[in-house]
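Explain the record.
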Amino acid sequence: METNTIVPEDARVTVGVAIAFWGATVLGASATGLFGKLAFEETAALIAFATIFALAAYFLDPSVRAFVDGLRHRAALAIAIDVAVALTWTYVPALLFGLPLAAVATATALTLRDAPRVRSVEAKSPGARPAAT
């Protein structure tokens, strides 16, 4: 008998395992000397694909987006990852691992979904109330 059971997804575990697997893959490729054998164009294409894939996962998967948006101090995390990538931009494995993370961290910091909204007319328009003179 077949039942349609929906298994709940734990985005925290999914994202954690994906990042760990990606890090291990980049580390293994670096240890075997793969990046030294690739042409510049191939390396650039690999980095571009990884970055686009990470951004697509963030923007298209609601559970991943909710998990990442729920992280505390997203802006500080984005700055830290961006600085780390900038400092290691000549080291291909660090760039291949860090750039997709930096792109997602920056994208989530820039969206600011939980930013406070201005609700009153007076706060929206400085001319709504006369200045005290």
Observations:
- Helices lie at 11-31, 34-37, 40-60, 62-69, 74-87, 92-111, 121-124.
